[in-house]
Amino acid sequence: RSDVYATGIVAFELFTGRQPFTGDCPVQVAYRHVHESVPAPSTVAPELPDALDRLVLAATARDPQHRPADAGALLDLARETRGSLPESALDLRPTATGGSRRSGTAGSGSGPGASSDSGSDARTAAPAGAATPQIVGAAADAPQNTQALPLRHRIRRSLPTPPGPPGRRDSEHDELARHRRNRGIVALVGVLALALVLALGAWKFTFGAYQAIPGDLAGQSLAEVEQYLKVHGLGSEVRDAYDDTAEPGTVLRTDPGAGEKVHNHGTVIVYVCRGPAEVTIPKNLIGMSEGEARAALTRGFLDFSHDDTQYNDDVPLGHVISTSPAPGTTVPNGTQVTLLVSNGPFPVTVPNVTNKPLAEATAQLDGLGLKVNVTWEYNDTVPAGSVIRQNPTAGSTSRHKATVTLVVSQVPVPDVIGKREEEARQILEDAGYTVQVDKVLGGVFGVVRGQNPGGGTRAPRGSTVTISVV
Q1: What angle do CA 400, 401, 407 make, to 5 degrees?
Q2: Fewer CB within 10 Å, N side or C side of the chain?
Q3: What is the pLDDT of residue 144?
Q4: What angle do CA 315, 318, 322 make, to 5 degrees?
């Protein structure tokens, strides 16, 4: 409503020809505007109607709440004031003595019978040294009278009255007064319209430059809120926040908050729920694959990092050995959990055990933490019971507790004829055969008198050799 006040000041000056407050410097004038009430225009020009006083005093009231609400309301008040003024009031003219009278009546100084005193009072003496306007023709010999203008046009430069028949002078003056009065009304309406434009402009760059944040943004998804802000010309800055009950990914609050103002094209800070403030590290991470552990941490609102790998005989390659902090620990949301991942069993270089007896080869591999798997086959060059070949081959890199397969030279079926039953059984079993005993006449002597297959035969290891005992 400061624009309404400014319009009232302009109206005061239009009606009186002077400003309501004066001072030795602009600071004094401004101080009086703040601390003093604007006087009624009639205190300067007593002939002014009360309606004009009420118009100016309403527009310049000390309390903004007592002024018209806006430029539109002031314009309505001005029109109402104009409509309340009678034509006689609009035709009032000030006299030299400060009184008021109607235009076109006796004593105007322009018609017959006017006294010399009044004619003398109405004239305006030209300042010394000022140029005198030249009147051409018959008007040059006529007296140059100063014409007092109607009330609404008091602040005007005096114009010389052209000569003419005495009977027409008052009517011409009345016509001129009405013409100027109409122009004054147009001027006042123009001033009020300009004040309205200024008020609208001020509103746009003050109150109109802001918009309120709606109260229903909380609880919506981040995508929905960002879309709303974009449609209304606002930017967004996303920040994390935590809540034990809100749905992760939804908006908890904004800054400015609900109902608060934000400048058009400004930025709104959006706080998005990232889950509860504290969480517990899952207890079953140990032994999970690294991928499974990362997924479990993400679901639990935790971050992760791969610190290092370590050889481990018991945890398979790529699986979690341990975490830091330990499983089951309660930590703040978003805490980074470090995973120690197994690199599998320790590496081992496989030795060369070919041509070595099976017992010696087995002992050497077992000492390196390797397991042994034995297969047999006959070989004419490698002594029976020695390693023909191995897998992995000598020099290969294997893992601790890995298996090395040895192919061992097969022992032919031993000849056990003439051996006692117990001795023959032991020899054949040591050679890898299964023994079946066939006792003749009860086998009272306990001596082997026959076998099948016979000694020196190449039979598959583990096959059965039948011995006859008498």
Answers
A1: 110
A2: C
A3: 41
A4: 55
